From TrEMBL:
Pathway: Cofactor biosynthesis; tetrahydrofolate biosynthesis; 2-amino-4-hydroxy-6-hydroxymethyl-7,8-dihydropteridine diphosphate from 7,8-dihydroneopterin triphosphate: step 4/4. This is 2-amino-4-hydroxy-6-hydroxymethyldihydropteridine diphosphokinase. The gene is folK. It comes from Shewanella scandinavica. One of its GO terms (molecular function) is 2-amino-4-hydroxy-6-hydroxymethyldihydropteridine diphosphokinase activity. NCBIfam families: folK. InterPro entries: Hppk (IPR000550), Hppk_sf (IPR035907). Its EC number is 2.7.6.3. Residues 5-129 form the 7,8-dihydro-6-hydroxymethylpterin-pyrophosphokinase domain. CDD domains: HPPK. It comes from the Bacteria. The keyword Nucleotide-binding applies. It holds the Pfam family HPPK. It is an enzyme of class 2 (transferase).
Amino acid sequence: MARIYISLGSNIEPEQHLQAGLTSLRACFGPLRLSSMYESEAVGFSGTNFLNMVASAETDLNIAAVVAQFKQIEQNHGRLAGAKKFSPRTLDLDLLLYDHVVCQTPVVLPRAEIVNNAFVLWPLAELAPELIHPVVDKSYASLWQEYDKDSQRLWPVTFEWPPGLTF
């Protein structure tokens, strides 16, 4: 079984779409570990704020199958195939890490956004602080500590999951 880390984000009815996305991820991958929820300003375009978090699960699927599953979940929750990269979205799921794999295909791993975007790095550092980035050879906690926190606005938000909803 491989340990995967997944970035989730939404800025269109984000509470609804993140809950639905997590429910779908749970159905596909079993129990999830979740970071806190964070709010951030849109990066790369003008738009409403995003809610972001990171989840972790285990899978016996290969990388291509995991990514295909994410795309299907996104589409099931209103994401249009082929939508512009820097645009509002109902649900964005990105594979950040697949164990300690470093590769270029079928996707680039570890995902570059880990070290470039606060909305990925902070929740990942919260969820897996001692885990070592397989390329830069530093823990995610260290990477977050060194990150230029003035470069992107991000803050934790209180998020109440509906009663009975478990991941």
